[in-house]
Amino acid sequence: MDTPKQFNIRVYGLLINEQQEVLITDEYRIGMLMTKFPGGGLEFGEGTIDCLKREFMEELGLPIEVESHFYTTDYFQAAISFENTQLMSIYYRVKTNTTEPIQTSHHSNDIPAVDGAQSFRWMPIRHLNSEEFTFPIDKIVAEMLKSDCIRAL
User: Fold this and answer.
1) H-only helix segments in 16-125
2) Per DSSP, what are the bridge partners of residue 104?
3) CB neighbours (10 Å) of residue 76?
4) Of 95, 90, 94, residue with least CA distance to 138
5) Which residue, among 92, 94, 91, has the nearest Cα to 16 in the 3D structure?
6) From the centroid of its chain, how far is CA 68?
7) CA angle 153–71–82, rounded 5-degree value
8) How far apart are CA 28 and CA 41, in angstroms?
9) Could you tell me which residues come within 8 angstroms of residue 103 by beta carbon, excluding any fewer than 6 positions away?
10) Bridge-based pairing state of the strands 21-29 and 65-72
């Protein structure tokens, strides 16, 4: 691989409900099914927290507040869908006053193979399986979140 010439910065939210479940999303984009945490790409002129608030409003119609920073990619990760691009992902714990507008599924990949299709579901943190996530960084974050949950018990 050539040396990356640009960055792709992604910002994700870890929304945890009272049952200790985290919200995840199944999506069909760039010709593939993917399971990841909610969030998306940072736009020029936008801060990371503003990006995350915008993404949650666009995808869920849900206003959020950031509780704390959780993790930022601390190793080199090439972007899968962008040539010569280094991926940087930033994860925050987020909260909201209500989760009522969120329509969820109980099945993984409960979406058609149509670009932009998306579905959300709650997953118990204790039972997170990193192999269910599509991208390497989400796998790491899932394991970190699960470890935090187990330590808190």
Assistant:
1) 48-60
2) 120
3) 9
4) 90
5) 94
6) 15
7) 135
8) 16
9) 120
10) unpaired
CA triple 33-141-36, angle to 5 deg: 20
Per-residue DSSP letters for 136-148?
Answer: HHHHHHHHHHHHH
Which residues are 7's β-sheet partners?
86
pLDDT at site 153: 58
Backbone angles phi, psi at 6, to 5 degrees: -155, 170
Mean pLDDT of 114-128: 90
- Token look-up 């935090």 returns 148
**What is the rounded distance in angstroms from the CA atom of residue 9 to the CA atom of residue 88?**
5
Cβ atoms of 72 and 39 closer than 8 Å: no
Question: How many Cβ atoms from other residues are within 10 Å of residue 68's Cβ?
Answer: 9
pLDDT at 90: 98
Are the C-beta atoms of 119 and 110 separated by less than 8 Å?
yes
Q: For residue 148, what pLDDT band results from cuts at 50, 70 and 90?
A: confident
Cβ contact 24:129 at 8 Å: no
> pTM of the entire structure?
0.90
